[in-house]
Amino acid sequence: MGTYRNYIERIEEENKMNNNKKWLILAVSIVINLCIGFAYAWSVFSKPLQMDFGWTPSQASMAFTINLFVLPIAMIFAGPLVKRFGVRVVVLLGGVLFGLGLYLSGMITTVYQIYITYGLIAGSGIGLIYSITVSNTVKWFPEHKGLAGGLTAGGFGAGSLIFAPVAVQFIAAQGVLGAFQTLGLIFAGVILVLGIFIAAPPVPVTDNKATAAAISQSSGDVATRDMLKTPDFYVIWGLMVLGCISGLMIISQASPIGQVMVGLSPEQAAFAVGFIGLANATGRVVWGTVSDKIGRYNTLMCMFALSGAGLVALYFTKDLPLFMVGICLIAASYGGVFGLFPSITADNFGIKHLSMNYGVVMTGLSIGAFIGPQIAAYAVEQSGGSYNLAFIITLGINIAAIILVLFAKRMNAKHKMTLATEN
């Protein structure tokens, strides 16, 4: 009896320690993501680089495009690395790559070198870190996956909002290359210090292999290769693509849209665009939290509906307030994608393989990053400068996404009914 009581007391003490630890890991993960979210402040560096090296805007923006494209690919590789080295080592490796990429960006002489340093190296570091911080915190908070994923992803979304003004000061004091080097050293140092506190949640221990397999099966854990064989994955991946299109179109074109549709000056447009980062970060936290209350798919429908409302607002906008409402609704809904899809992936395929599974789902970001800006460019070319056609096309995409969500919701309900029958 005494032995049993001691066992219970030990379990309760471990649970108390783990409860304290998970909040520390969440806080550390948010701060680390604030650091790598600095990458979204690329526009701060773009014009100084164009002036110093004579690059065209398209040449300069390609570095950011490569960075964004590499991110989900690195997330896929994070899964196998975690299995071999653990979450802490992968985060520290990501911190080294991110800081090194920025530092080497301060030593470039050609545009192709910045594609390698900022695009490939720094982008790989971001992908490794983002994959682990989001998936790992979701594992620590199984009862509040939406909140944990939203807060962690929110840190990434808010990074540019916080650090862009800092970067401007460094550029003014040291020049654009000096700023890259200084910020690279700072961010690497912060991530390497905080990354030490990252740890995976404890797993149930059993000496019985059959029992362990049963636990894994009952928890719904699905390996990546098996996930790719399910129709659920392709529906979720499709929703990821559709969820990114409108947001990335607005993020890439908000300033010219404001100037063309509302007649804003470049300075006024830049001020308005600053709110996109705030709306993006807020959406990641709010929508992730809401999904814990009303369900993932109901939340997705609300997000796509509000994004559509934002597009309608932009179509009819004639003044700054309606323009602000439109871009903020779209940006908040886009941010919600990254607060919500870690939880959707975990709900459907379990948490054991979440790092790699979510990395594969995130490849939809690369597709959306290509389609969104292309829709805007097509609309401008076809209409002689107006973006209204782009708003109509993306509104149609949002409507299609709502229909796909209804299909996914029905499919998920059938899947749960089947599992209940089998059990």
TrEMBL record:
This is MFS transporter. SUPFAM superfamilies: MFS general substrate transporter. Residues 1-413 form the Major facilitator superfamily (MFS) profile domain. Its main location: membrane. It is found in: Cell membrane. The keyword Transmembrane helix applies. The chain crosses the membrane at residues 23-42, 62-82, 89-108, 114-134, 146-172, 178-200, 234-257, 269-287, 299-316, 322-346, 358-380, 386-408. Keywords: Membrane, Transmembrane, Transmembrane helix, Transport. InterPro entries: MFS, MFS_dom, MFS_trans_sf, Proton-linked_MCT. It is a multi-pass membrane protein. Pfam families: MFS_1 (PF07690). Coiled coil: none annotated.
